[in-house]
Write a structure and sequence with these properties.
Order of helices and strands: HEEEEEEEEEEEHHHHEEHHHH
Strand order of the largest sheet: 10-12-13-11
Largest sheet: 4 strands, antiparallel
Number of strands: 13
Shape: elongated
Distance between the termini: 39 Å
Radius of gyration: 26 Å
């Protein structure tokens, strides 16, 4: 993609979004484990407290209207230990069983984000560039994204955004590093444009700054640039981080297997932010073969491993040769390719893999 095309896209997007402001977490919050699963990170379980006429803070979760008592005062139906407070000093007092906490005074325990570079090269290469170490086929990378919660100011950083990263047979056994590098390049460019825009630059000036950073290393055959730029604007406005963005791009493109959900942030021992752990691969085909091939091998008896640190490694050459493709349903992949029959795709894939194995083994 030429620089002037990127510049035009950025100018239009920044010009139409005004002066965006990032949403910040409420200073006073309350949380409740409404569904009894041990955390307060699900929908409706965290809320911002409102300041009442008396200067106290009131939690909106499970509020009830207070009842008049015999002395002319008010009593909370939930128990006398809960204060009855009027939001504006005029309307009837209300109460909540949940207390409010000042987040600036209560330390939020944030889990450190692990940057997984994928399988590292563990051997030398010969004169022809063939790997002499352990070969992994359809290797992946562990990523996490965060659904609505305290750390992401209740935005959904796991939201998929169309098919941004392009798939294809030509890249089915190449490293995921190329696509991740492209995703990082888009993020870097968008962040540069957004930062310049917030600092007072015009849309045109900010777009130029972003285009200069974005254009480096971009391969338009591997990524849908226009969709990616729209996605980056949304990510930045929501306060999501780079790993949220990378996971979102690959998830929406069908290249990730979700392993599970875990707690990534706590306040006073209560979980206030969850994260979705996943293994992301360089192609949809890689993800499909990983999902359907692992159950066939004893080496993957524990599936995808621990949720916080899933096992995303690829197949060894021996493991890959032991897979029974006749037991795999590749229809999800075939459906995306309209110009070729399933038989031709299967035959082409087999030839490419055989050629690859011959190159690295002999």
């Amino acid at each position: 993609m030429k620089k002037r095309t990127v510049l035009l896209w950025l100018t239009l997007l920044l010009a139409t979004c005004g002066q965006p402001q990032l949403v910040h977490a409420q200073q006073w919050l309350c949380a409740a484990d409404l569904n009894g699963n041990g955390d307060a990170a699900d929908d409706g379980e965290i809320a911002g407290c409102t300041m009442t006429a008396s200067g106290d803070h009131l939690c909106p979760i499970e509020q009830m209207t207070c009842m008049s008592d015999a002395s002319g005062g008010y009593a909370c139906p939930l128990g006398n230990q809960y204060a009855c407070l009027s939001p504006d000093g005029v309307s009837a007092p209300i109460c909540s069983p949940h207390s409010c906490i000042e987040t600036s005074a209560s330390q939020v325990e944030e889990e450190v984000v692990i940057e997984d570079p994928g399988t590292a090269a563990d051997g030398a290469v010969d004169a022809d560039g063939n790997c002499l170490g352990t070969v992994e086929i359809f290797g992946g990378r562990k990523l996490r994204c965060r659904p609505p919660g305290l750390s992401v100011t209740f935005q959904n950083c796991c939201k998929d955004k169309d098919k941004i990263v392009k798939d294809g047979m030509g890249s089915s056994i190449s490293s995921i590093g190329t696509k991740i590098a492209i995703a990082k390049g888009v993020f870097t460019g968008m962040k540069a444009a957004y930062t310049a825009f917030k600092a007072g630059a015009t849309a045109s000036q900010a777009a130029s700054a972003g285009a200069n950073a974005l254009i480096v290393g971009i391969d338009p055959t591997s990524i849908a640039i226009s969709l990616a730029i729209n996605f980056m604007v949304e990510v930045l406005l929501q306060g999501c981080d780079q790993q949220d963005m990378e996971a979102g791009m690959l998830r929406g493109s069908g290249m990730c297997h979700e392993v599970g959900t875990y707690c990534s942030s706590k306040v006073l021992g209560l979980c206030v932010q969850k994260a979705k752990s996943q293994c992301c691969f360089n192609s949809k085909l890689g993800r499909i073969i990983q999902e359907q091939g692992r159950p066939q091998l004893k080496a993957f008896a524990n599936g995808w491993g621990e949720v916080r640190s899933p096992n995303c490694r690829g197949f060894t050459a021996q493991e890959f040769q032991a897979l029974d493709f006749s037991k795999m349903n590749l229809s999800e992949y075939y459906d995306e390719i309209e110009t070729r029959s399933a038989d031709l795709i299967g035959s082409d894939m087999e030839k490419k893999v055989d050629a690859y194995l011959n190159a690295v083994q002999y």
